[in-house]
Specification:
The chain is α+β, with helices and mostly antiparallel strands. The protein contains 5 helices and 7 strands. Strands 4-1-7-5-6 form a 5-stranded mixed β-sheet. The protein has a two-stranded antiparallel sheet with strand order 2-3.
Length: 153
């Protein structure tokens, strides 16, 4: 068995879509990033690469490469899955976002991750937290995600 840990953070910006787990979440702000900025999928991609000791998302999809400009993070995840071919045991994720409440979307996010990862939804946990009004996350200036993935190898 192998374990991978992933993490990502992005500034929030007006005029961008808020993408979490491959879904557009209603919000006045979205991730400011080279791709669509989906912090949850970016953290999962990092965890997958980490589990296989293959570097991180930036080494595979560098922001300096224009072919990834505004690309869907779901497409990046698909490429990652094709490369790693993981047998996922389970995935545990946390998203930290101060202003947009995610609880109403958690089940849809889990279901979409289930489809993207081709695993049963019972193997996926997604938790939503705030940062208790502390630092840039707490001021609503950023969004963060972290996850841990367990792989049969």
């Amino acid at each position: 068995m192998r374990i991978g840990q992933g993490w990502d953070i992005h500034r929030l910006k007006e005029g961008r879509d808020l993408m979490i787990g491959g879904l557009k979440i209603p919000s006045n702000t979205g991730e400011d990033a080279h791709s669509d900025g989906d912090v949850l999928l970016h953290a999962i991609i990092d965890a997958l690469y980490g589990a296989f000791a293959l570097g991180d998302i930036g080494s595979h999809f560098p922001p300096s490469d224009n072919q990834y400009k505004d690309i869907s993070s779901s497409a990046l995840l698909k490429k990652t899955l094709e490369e790693t071919k993981p047998d996922i045991v389970n995935l545990d994720c946390t998203v930290i976002l101060e202003k947009t409440r995610l609880r109403p979307y958690i089940d849809r996010i889990r279901e979409n991750l289930s489809l993207l990862l081709d695993i049963d939804v019972s193997r996926i946990s997604v938790k939503a937290k705030t940062n208790e009004a502390l630092d840039s996350l707490g001021r609503g200036e950023a969004i963060e995600a972290s996850c841990v993935i367990l792989i049969n190898n």
